[in-house]
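hey all, quick one before standup. I had two proteins in the batch that finished overnight and I want to keep them in one place so we stop losing track of which output belongs to which input. First protein below, input sequence then structure tokens straight from the run.
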Amino acid sequence: MKLSFPEYHLFQLLRRFDNQHLPLDLFLSQYFRAHKQLGSKDRRTIAQAVYGMSRWQSLIDFLVEGQPSWEKRYALFRCFQPDQYLYVNSIPLHTRVSFPEELFSLLVEDYGKEKAIRLCQICNTEAPVVVRANPLKITRDALLKRFVEIEFDVTPCKYSPFGIQFKHRAPLIALPEFKEGLFEIQDEASQCVARLVNAQPGERVLDYCAGAGGKTLAFAHQMENQGQIYLHDIRPYILEQAKKRLKKAGIQNAQFLHPKHPHLETLKKKLDWVLVDAPCTGTGTMRRNPDQKWRFSHALLDQLIGQQRMIFEQALSYVKPGGHIVYATCSLLHAENEKQVAHFLEIYNLEMVGDPFVSLPSYEGMDGFFAASFKKMDA
């Protein structure tokens, strides 16, 4: 079979992906950076095929003849219509919705069969493109106006006062507005989670699992560059990314603390707010990282539940009496969300503040996120 230029790179990419451990989005980004000869149209063609085949891999593998290969998968995928198999009873139900049996069974247990099927179908679609206007530099209305002038089809988000959704994908990171720090790419649900950290000017806040600083970027403007934000993560390289992003956004009241930083010990029981954006199965964001579902197992879930409890206890030690801690995941599973909240309330002297924030993936809507806010009661 004679391959087109993007198809050649598609198979090169897929074979390399099979022999490494990076998540799909990061691996794809690195491949494109290393192959600058691929134009935007080629990248789009490749990304659609890679993500599509990853989302539907188990159903495609069930349908191809003989031992699956990327060539066979791609040949089927090019004319693939997954909806026509949803009611074919000879195919296992979890395969029809292209989810691992273990994970699908947990979703059925938590949500019932019909809702679980719908969630899986939504997770197999392309996620919407959403950005968050940076109120330290521009209002949402002013940014919307700029996007409309560039002739982007955009609408304001319903739940986040800073969110803007794009009807079509666009090369956002190439825009001058992005380089100036006027906006960040962030799902609306993630923006809503960050808003639970109601930090005020002069307060002290710790983003305990900060990563590249996405949640901090979404709540920092409330503090008007007064008080102090501490970002902590076990990965020094990712804190460097956070440092660059916060500087671009105009956030000047942040410090970056690796696990052995001497300042950490001095912060115990002194902070007004702590955010725990806990490591999780990522089941609420599988539209963006469909490869993640094929790595799921009960053993991994049990391991993550243990990590979440350990991290929460560590983070809680930094909250002062009367202070607040926010626990968040991008998971759909009750075991990582509601059941963890029940555990924290049973073990620690905490009071729940309001109802948890819960979002489920929806067509052209938010990703799946969960967050709960607690007030520390003990002295």
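OK second protein, same deal, sequence then tokens:
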Amino acid sequence: MKEYIYSRNAVYETLRAKRRQVFQLLLAEGANDRGRMAEIVTLAQQRKVPIQRVPRQRLDRIHEYHQGVVLEASGYPYRELDDILELARSRSELPFVLLLDTLNDPQNFGALIRTAEAVGVHGIVIPLARTVDVTPAVVNASSGASEHMLVAQANLVQAMEELKAADVWIVGLDQDGETVTTASGRSPLSGALGLVVGSEGEGMRSLVKKSCDIILKLPMRGQIESLNAAVAGSVALYLAYLARNK
């Protein structure tokens, strides 16, 4: 299956990661070959990708926010949970895994992928159904971070049990949980960790929630009751990063 990756950062990272088969690079006529665009052209030439100059209207038909560049490539290369655990072993690190329960918004998914990649998450697990996949919109929202991240599709509860068998502590993020604290003592976000973030509106499904070792919530001092999934998940990922790197 082929798809069109759009926007400069997304196209650049797709070419740089070398995880997809690429078929052609489409550049808008008159686009400036400077900065990131020049780097894209160089990477495409190095990989011997055919480059076409096309009317901007043709790119507009693919996506309105193309930024003058579109890459025709193969579909997203999903991996297995074992690949994620093997990556942690190869780095001599305790596993750090993000599990997303039926997230539906591409912007939220992309933002979480970007944060996860930045803090050293070894991989992300998403359900087999009722969730957003790694689409071109998600690649764009992640600024191409998706191309450097291992993403596995699996039955979420089964994946959680597999992680537990590998001595990974499963922590769910929910408003009904205990407040995350930075007090002295071992943080539940340190060590081998699987962090579960629920969907935007409903949170975690009941069986997923029951399968967690502990449920935590972020401390809140303002008037609003909660943060959206991407913001809450990103904050928790950074708290885990700090706890794991004390």
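Flagging for whoever picks this up: DSSP finds nine helices and ten strands in the chain. The radius of gyration is 19 Å.
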